[in-house]
Every structure is written in structure tokens, then in C-alpha cells.
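Progress against Task 2.4 (sequence-to-structure conversion) is shown through the following example record, which the project officer requested during the mid-term review.
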Amino acid sequence: MDNIPPPVRSRVMGQIRSRGNRTTEIALIGVFRQHAITGWRRGVPLIGKPDFVFPICRVVVFVDGCFWHGCRSHCRTPHTRRKYWTRKVRLNQERDTEVTRMLRTSGWSVFRFWEHDVKAGCKTHGFKRMKTIIQQSAFLVRDTRGGSRADEPRR
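C-alpha cells generated for the chain above:
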């Protein structure tokens, strides 16, 4: 039984700040390393707090938790306070849509992966597309910085 009054509990809980879903982020880092994807940063102060940012190619990656973002396959609404949780997840989805729109209008490519996709090793079409964009960008960056190209003779 909780012996702290609800207003005090609310204030205390409101002061706790999230630091991201470490297990899925670490799993995605493993996938990046497995596919030799480099150039990502974490904790970049962009709207929506993306989990990973590739600043050179202007790509952001979000890993959406199945429960908090309403995955159709895995989100199970709790039986208690059902109305509250349904509204909470719906507002999260609306915020995700707005953040994605704002980032795209600012020139960023936005990729959102479900928690269950990351745990399965990111074998989705979206992951393949993201990998292609990042690798093409890395190639262009190497070219513009004066790196050697395969079709140029060495000096």
C-alpha cells in the first residue's frame, strides 16, 4: 500500500527524467556495428530527441517502444485505467507524427523502428533503405574531402 499522498507522488515521479531505452539502443548499436554503419551520434539536441543522429547525411533514427508508441502487434493496454493508457499512447503517436513532419520539413531523413524489429536484428525494408542512404552519403563525403577514388590513377 502506498503511504505517500497522490500529489506528492505525482511531483516526485514528474522529476524523474527518461534516459532512453538502453537495451534496444544497445541492440541497435550492435546492428550498426554488424553492418559497418558509422558516423552516428547519440544525445544530439534535435526536436523529438532522436535516439541516433547521422549529422553528415542528415538522418535521424528513433526506436519506438512497442508499449509506449502503440505497436499493433505487441502493445497490450493495461486492464486498469484503460482510458488513461489509451489516451497516453494516442498522444504519443500524434507527437511522433508531428516530430517526424517537422524534422522532414527541416531536411532530415527520419527512420522509425519498432522495438521488436531491433531485437530481431533490423531486417526490415526501412533499415536497408537507411543503410543505403548513409553509405551513399559516406561515399560522397569521402569524395569531396579529397580521398582517392577507384577510377582515378594514384599520384
